[in-house]
Amino acid sequence: MSPRLIQWIFWPTAIALVVGTCYYLWKSTQPRRHGAPANAAGRQSPDGQSDDDDDDTPQTPETTNVKVVYPRRGAMERISVQVGSVEADEVLLQAKVSGYLKAQYVNIGATVQEGDVLAVIDVPELEKLVQRNGALVEQAEARVKQMKAKVTATKADLDAAHAEVIHADAQARAATAWVSYRGAVYLRMKELAAAKNIEQRIEDESKQQYESARESERAARAAIIKAQAAAHAFGAKVLLAEADVEEAKANVKVAQAEYERTTEQFKFATIVAPFDGHITERRLVEGAFVRSAAEGGAAQTIFAIQRPDRMRVVVQIPDSDVPFASKDKPAFVELDAFPGAKFEAKISRVAKTEDVKTRLMHVEIDLPNKDGTIRQGMFGKVTIFLDKMSKQLSVPSSCLAGKSKARKGAVFVVRDGKAFLTKVRFGMDNGSRVEVFGLQDTDRVILAPPAGLADGMEVQSALYEEPELNLDPAP
């Protein structure tokens, strides 16, 4: 068979298959006519037509099954449903001394206790400075002892000076008594010489002895002044020595403070855990140079440590809810990582101010995390119960069949087995329920109207019992 003949046979056959397939798919998508019962045996009329093709019996529309709820009074709460993200108490551990990372004892994911040594920085020059300052403290303390010994010696000299004053005073009194005696002798010798009872020479000797006694008295008086001056001088030296002692003690404090400063600074070479937690980051390795955060420039983080036992969920509250948000308001936290789980909590902190750019207020909710399953970075939905509303009728938000900016819309109400589109006005909408005006307590409102539901369509309704909301959940 020639190739040209094969092509003449293949292409018509392929085209016929494609056309037949398309027709079959189109035919299968056409809806069946309602009200025409199927012929169980697939009978055809005598003329070869199906019974369905010429059946003129009236058709009955299908009945739609729906769920209905009654409008409720007092069930409308002011709630705020926002996206929340989980944050942990995290500390970036940075060095306060420069040096080379000598050792690391933990890695990412390690669980540590408060005070555990995490890393050590090699700072030999600082270590030597600590030793030098320690020696200076010892030197200053020795200086204090030296000054105290000087005070003791100076006080002894002062006591000796006081004794010398006493001795000089005694000598002065003795000299005074001797002067009196020599004066009396001289007067008697003078009288005897005048009476020519003794030689003139004896009178002259007596006078000389009297004058000598007077000079001795003057010398004794001068010795008293000298001894007193020496005592005053030694008293001043005692005060000076005592001041030297106080200065030496102050120098000890200065040296001790410098020693303690360098010692504390040296302690910064050992990185310890500030609290119980786990290591989430390690940014340097052994041998890397670590620059002190106190030296300026970009700070170098060695580790990041998180406290896992308590997490906080951060929520941004919109301006309309800000007046109602306060501490201890109940809330539910639903995290995407834990489907179906609800964490009961309360507002822990509010910023009490709005961000001028976003008009949102920062709110934090603490979550206990004893088992450590909640991690930083998780997110989910946070429902905060802000306030109870009025007794106005409200329905679930899913009942709405249409809503406009003018707070007007419609819901489907079931009456006599049919769904009627009823126009209503809306009030407060908290995301789960909405206030409605224009309904009665006895109206049966369709919940989540199905697609294609039209005004006047027959429906089969079943009452849906709404669960009661607990407005005061215990954390």
> What is the helix fraction of residues, given as a range?
25-40%
Low-confidence stretches: 30-60, 471-475
**Whole-number radius of gyration?**
56 Å
Our estimate of the beta-strand percent is 25-35%
CATH architecture of the largest domain: Orthogonal Bundle
CATH superfamily of the largest domain, called what?
Helix Hairpins
The SSE string, one letter per element, is: HEEEEEEHHEEEEEEEEEEEEEEE
- The tally of helices reads 3
**N- to C-terminal separation?**
87 Å
Give the SSE layout.
Layout: H1 3-28, E1 64-69, E2 72-73, E3 77-94, E4 99-104, E5 111-112, E6 117-122, H2 124-194, H3 200-267, E7 270-272, E8 277-282, E9 289-290, E10 301-318, E11 330-335, E12 343-354, E13 360-368, E14 379-388, E15 393-396, E16 402-403, E17 408-415, E18 418-429, E19 433-437, E20 444-447, E21 457-463
Parallel strand pairs: 1-21
Antiparallel strand pairs: 1-20, 2-15, 3-10, 3-14, 4-6, 4-9, 5-8, 6-7, 8-10, 10-13, 11-12, 11-14, 12-13, 15-19, 16-17, 17-18, 17-20, 18-19, 18-21
Helix pairs in contact: 2-3
Can you put this structure into words, describing what you see?
This protein folds into four domains: 67-76 and 391-463, conserved putative lor/sdh protein from methanococcus maripaludis s2 fold (Beta Barrel); 78-88 and 308-388, Efflux pump adaptor protein, beta barrel domain (Elongation Factor Tu (Ef-tu), domain 3, Beta Barrel), CATH 2.40.30.170; 92-121 and 270-295, RNA polymerase II/Efflux pump adaptor protein, barrel-sandwich hybrid domain (OB fold (Dihydrolipoamide Acetyltransferase, E2P), Beta Barrel); 126-267, Helix Hairpins (Orthogonal Bundle), CATH 1.10.287. Helix 2 packs antiparallel against helix 3. Helices cover 35% and strands 31% of the residues. By secondary structure, the protein is α+β, with helices and mostly antiparallel strands. Strand 12 (343-354) and strand 13 (360-368) form a beta hairpin. The protein has three helices and 21 strands. Strands 3-10-13-12-11-14 form a six-stranded antiparallel barrel.
